[in-house]
Amino acid sequence: MSAPESPPPTLRLDDAARGRLWPAFDEAWIVFEDDDLLAIDKPEGVSCQAADPAHPDDLVHRLGLHRPGAYVGVHQRLDQDTSGVLVYTKRREVNRPLAQQLEGRQVEKRYVAVVRGWRGGPRRLEHGLVKGEGGRVVVARPRDRRAKIAITHARPIESAGDLTLLELRLETGRTHQIRAQLAAVGAPIEGDPRYGGSPAPRLMLHAASLSLRHPGTGAPLRVEAPIPAALTRHLRAQPEPLEDRLERALAARWGLAHRGVDALRVVHRDGDALDAFAVDLYGPFAVLHVYDEDAPIEAALDWLGARLEGVYVKRRPRQGNVIVDGRDDDYAPGAPARGRAAPEVALVLEHGLPFHVRLGEGLSTGLFLDQRDARGWVLGHAGGARVLNLFCYTGAFTVAAAAGGARATVSVDASGRLLDWARENLDGASLLGPAHRLEQADCFVALDALARGGERFDLVIVDPPTYSSTRTTRWTSGKAWRDLAARCLRVLAPGGRLLASSNDHRMTQARFRRHLHDAARDAEAELAQLKDLRPPRDFPPGPAGPHLKAALATRA
After folding, report:
1. Residue 350 located in a structural domain
2. Out of 35, 52, 58, 79, which one is annotated catalytic?
3. Which residues contact 204 (CB under 8 A, 6 or more apart)?
4. For the domain that residue 505 is a member of, what is the CATH number?
5. What does the DSSP 8-state code read for residue 411?
6. Is residue 79 flagged as an active site residue?
7. Domain final position from 175, 210, 235
8. Full domain range(s) for residue 277
9. Are residues 261 and 198 both part of a single domain?
10. Average pLDDT, the chain
11. Rounded to an integer, what distance in angstroms lies between the CA atom of residue 545 and that of residue 503?
12. Same structural domain, 281 and 409
């Protein structure tokens, strides 16, 4: 009897490699320190308060990793996208005198910002501010009793065309005060789309200095953080070095990487101000997706190659509607462009589940990383459900559903090769069995057959490509979503849920919702709820919005 075949190697980042790519803290961030105080020039993208307490990634947590056991007293915060100076206490005895100064507005706070549309010289800005929809702060209507007065003194430092570098001194400390006030006077901050700002490599706002009395000695103290080069470069229309943009994108994934995630996107095109590139990490290997052959590909490869064991290149067609053989070496060379080759077949772990990936085989590796959070949701909500997975690709959603306790799954794809891969994934997770059926078929034909047979599912998952064709059907994302979603809803049981997603860059979330609402009317299926799903943190939206549009529809 032959010995069982050993599983493929697992691609993981060890602690040393993770620390090199994402250090907890950089001593260069410290701009002042004595026995009582610690002042830090917080980088843009580092949070002051963890969004998820179970997975802290904030500055104080990172400082604690760097200086275990040290006391850190927190008295102020900055928005995650704002850089600049923050002062912490190192002894409890100086907390009260510092807090009294901050609460009594005795600390002078000076910011700088690059804005578009500033007219004239210095101005005193005074507005009543209220919280509007989605947490956005807006100028209050007259006699609105909720309004809180915000006062900012603005002074131009340098201008270039329609851009101005402003110095901003705050009399008050309202939430989003600077951003809301500058938007209100027609001079929004660059890189601040939430408040009407134009696209930029980052939010062009920086906390430049704090002036206060030292809480221990009473002596005057001014702590400064130099103006970041990114602001002056943007003002003067100077190109930002590729290395700086790559470093910033990598740093923004600190929290995700330190959760132990080994497969993630570390550069996401225009969401990271790098339109020509996307970079996916699979343990110590990277895949560089190229969308513009005129981009500095070699420089990007050198940067990645210096940090990782191997780098593969996938060249995406200029026109999205061009369907190519993803295994063509012109588009996806099988050998790495830098470093050593990854194992031909390897595993990556996601939510504790193993998935087979092939980094050198075709344009896709076998795992769509932008669906990580959605697979996590399925893992947590599929218990006892009958699940239909359409356009199932390599069956990653099926594995999540089966691992989450689904009583039965049906997975449909037109490609026998991909279904073999899905079978491999189920087998690798010890989930292969008669309860999980894999069906090679055109998804539209299969949906019609399931509907005629009276089959119903508690969860239907549909994630089609933007373009595809079979012998019987040619699919193009867009208005055709209405028909596809209607067919899905016809096989969805009452109280069941439809998880639908599209990576069509032309599609907006609002249009996607309309297609689903129209589909519900066509299918005579009343929806109890339609909830938009946010993209994962490593796929930040660009100026046009998120690339992945996803929604969860619950049938009444």
Report:
1. no
2. 79
3. 113, 114, 115, 189, 190, 191, 192, 197, 230, 231, 234
4. 3.40.50.150
5. E
6. yes
7. 235
8. 243-339
9. no
10. 94
11. 11
12. no
Nearest to 185 by CA among 129, 121, 127: 127
> What would the pLDDT profile of 509-531 be if each residue is shown by its tens digit?
999 999 999 999 999 999 999 99
pTM for this structure? Answer: 0.91
Enumerate helices (H) and strands (E) in the chain, giving the number of each. 14, 26
User: What CA–CA distances, in Å, run from 490 to 190, 458, 463, 519?
Assistant: 47, 12, 17, 10
Residue 281 amino acid letter:
L
Alpha carbons within 13 A on the beta-carbon side of 210:
27
Q: How many CB atoms lie within 10 A of CB 222?
A: 12
Residues 46-81 pLDDT 10s: 999 988 888 899 999 999 999 999 999 999 999 999
In a domain, 347, yes or no: no
How far is residue 396's CA from residue 345's CA, in Å, rounded to a whole number?
Answer: 16
* Number of domain units in the chain: 3
CB 165 within 8 A of CB 229: no
| Residue 348, pLDDT above cutoff 60 | yes
pLDDT digits (tens, 9 = 90+) for 446-498: 999 999 999 999 999 999 998 888 888 888 888 989 999 999 999 999 999 99
Cα angle 31, 49, 44; round to 5: 50
The amino acid at 107: V
Contacts of 58 (CB under 8 A, 6+ apart): 46, 47, 48, 49, 50
